[in-house]
Amino acid sequence: MSIHERYRLSVVINAKGTFTPLGVSRSSDGVATAVAQALPEFFVMDELGDRASEAIAQVTGAQAGAVVHCTAAGITLAVAATMTGGDSRRIAALPDATDMHHRVVMPACHVVDYGHSNLQGIRLSGAQVDLAGDETRCSIGDLEEELDGPDVSCLFLVSSRLTQGEPLDLVAAVRAAHRRGVPAIIDGAAQFPRIADLLATGADLVLVSGQKYLGSPTAGLVAGTWPLVQAVRAQEKGIGRVMKPTKEAIIGVIAALEEWQAFDRMKWEADELAKVLAFAEAAARIPEVSAEVVPDPTGLQVSRVLLKVKDAKRVATELEAGVPPIYVMTDRVADDELMLELIPLDADEIATVLARLWAILT
Fold first, then answer.
1. How are beta strands 205-209 and 220-224 bridged, if at all?
2. Which domains occur in the chain, in start order?
3. Of the candidates 230, 179, 186, 231, which has an alpha carbon nearest to the alpha carbon of residue 204?
């Protein structure tokens, strides 16, 4: 009996990407084995945290790293760390940020919703958010104007395909913060494969998800400077207590990092691109459907298939209503466009998606 049958759960074909409401991603057998080995064992959790820090540092090139419950937790804890440092009194006081530098400067076009707004994630630490620019544009001058004010704890930036407006030069933004002695944090939730690039901007902390392209259990990875990473870990004596990682999550992250170092990423990228090209060619044979391969707009080494179809909203609804339900990206249905990410799908699942599209559209 499968896990889906045992607990009366729907079998899902996920062409929507690393989407939290669908369980995000698939872990490898090696990661699953490591997690299973961890579950019946005891550990000194500080030691386990140290081993995770070493593994993150080795893979990313950062000075240190930490595992937190998820990237959303990482946002709250990273901001908290810039307000408290390692001061135990301040850590115990949060979210009361009285007498602390508690203003977080953030481009208005970097406000995104991951199921909740990242503004709320920042405010959970006790910080106040001051937005620079507007939804369509934020210049370095806009950032500098906000950074020049009093009580700034950090600059918060987002690297994601979900951001709006003109792209912001992250390197220039980080430098603007550093000229004022303000640390910079980059939230790169789904950007684990680019974490070295994000750290190369000079950011003090970079936050990424473990359970997306790394394929670990649910976890957030924090990589950056030694003092701020230690301040993040210290939050477990305060508001971070409710966001702490489990032993199996930390072991799973370490195992996933070991696999990441060992596998041939160039071959993986070539194989995934070939999968996308073949799907686009097959989908384009469906009458009145056009298909193109679209690279990730942030520079992530991922390509997706963009389908242009009549009444895209209806098509997406019928895909989800079928058996098994098929989920695709629907943020562009107003333009009669559907986006599909094929990374987690095997050949049988891809064939099912194509067959369902034929059935719905013809």
1. antiparallel
2. 3-23+264-361 (3.90.1150.180), 42-262 (3.40.640.10)
3. 186
Q: Give the tens place of pLDDT for each residue, 211-244.
A: 999 999 999 999 999 999 999 999 999 999 999 9
Do you find a cis peptide bond into 40, omega within 30 degrees of 0? no
Residue pair 64/229 in contact (Cβ under 8 Å)? The answer is yes
Cβ atoms of 76 and 232 within 8 Å: the answer is no
Side chain identity at residue 34, one-letter code: A
272-285 per-position pLDDT tens digit: 999 999 999 999 99
* Helix boundaries (H) for 235-284: 247-262, 265-283
Listed residue (223, 356, 340) closest to 276, CA to CA: 340
Do 258 and 265 contact (CB within 8 A), yes or no? no
Distance CA 341, CA 358 (A): 18
What is the largest distance, in Å, between two alpha-carbon atoms of the chain?
A: 66
Amino acid letter, 160? S
Query: CB–CB of 309/338 below 8 Å?
Result: yes
Instruction: Fill in the amino acid letter for 46.
Output: D
CA distances from 92 to 86, 245, 321, 342 (A): 11, 19, 49, 45
